[in-house]
Amino acid sequence: MSKKIRAAITGLGTFTPDYILTNDELSKMVDTSDEWIMTRIGIKERHILKGEGLGTSDMAVEAVKSLLEKTNTSPDEVDLLLCSTVTPDMMFPATANIISDKAGIKNAFSFDLNAGCSGFLYGLSVASQFVETGKYKKVVLVGADKMSSIIDYTDRKTCAIFGDGAGAALLEPSQDETGIIDFNNATDGIGRHHLHQKAGGSVKPASFETVANKEHFVYQEGQTVFKYAVSRMGDISVDMMKKHGLTSETLDWLVPHQANLRIIDATGRRMGLPSEKVMVNIREYGNTTNATIPLLLADYADKLNKGDNLIITTFGAGFTWGAMYVKWSLQGN
Ligand SMILES: CC(C)(COP(=O)(O)OP(=O)(O)OC[C@H]1O[C@@H](n2cnc3c(N)ncnc32)[C@H](O)[C@@H]1OP(=O)(O)O)[C@@H](O)C(=O)NCCC(=O)NCCS
Description:
The chain is an alpha/beta fold. It contains 11 helices and 13 strands. A 5-stranded mixed β-sheet has the order 1-7-6-4-5, with helices on both faces. Strands 8-13-12-11 form a 4-stranded mixed β-sheet, with helices on both faces. A two-stranded antiparallel sheet has the order 2-3. Bound molecules: coenzyme A.
């Protein structure tokens, strides 16, 4: 019997724009304070893409180029490029098509995937299948969002949370026992009522009225989203631990979506993990939606050892959530 092919993350590339929006600057724009944001959310600053005519693909392409360079991959070798985003350059064509063009990737097919803040996790799940079936050898997944393009900077309830960024991963057949071991994703469309963008889609196309009513910005009922996020991420991660016999000793790292430090802490507690095992970088980036997981993995790359047991967990608009068990395949950065 032939051995099962496992998909491994064999490289990461990231990009964040230079401009940093601090809590102090935000405090001049809306009625908020560094103290409130640090206590209630845990964010100090976020990166913002400035510049006329620049969109999500401009950040994504930088992350992809860096990934290809780091992994010595020629653009011609890429079989599939997936982009997870909630802020595509435009409604169509897919931002993935634009990224492929800008990165010189000519032999791949490419498409977008929208799963809110779970997009990168869903993307890893989808990408892994193309590798596991033996169909493809090199799949690039890039998660990128210019959240600043859909944030109302007069709304203190949302403007402190989000930031811009991009992160890409290369998936290849694993050469050993490491790689993506298992995943479990979930969806509950009830979430559409609590976190969405009201206008700009087919139900409510853009009009003078929708612009005047600020309906192209993020609408969020924070407390409801908070409660769902804590219970769903915690439960699905605990289930994944149980299924694979992982304990707080044998699980090396929790890689949680970064939306609120209190959600991250609560998820770690539900899993019985000490805080040293929970990856956190929300302070520097805020919630970068689809870029969060790759930015987090890249920031912790030099602390990770080959064979480490990781659980990646996310929660996002939809609602969407999931947990993925990964045996880390890389040693160092
Ligand atoms: C959004 C969130 C930070 C708000 O924190 P909260 O403690 O739940 O606060 P509430 O929404 O209950 O608001 C309490 C008060 O704080 C105020 N407030 C909200 N944001 C504020 C800010 N940045 N600065 C100061 N006050 C703020 C509200 O206006 C409200 O005041 P009011 O009663 O006078 O109207 C929090 O609910 C959250 O993180 N939710 C989940 C977000 C998430 O995970 N989103 C992404 C999913 S992918």
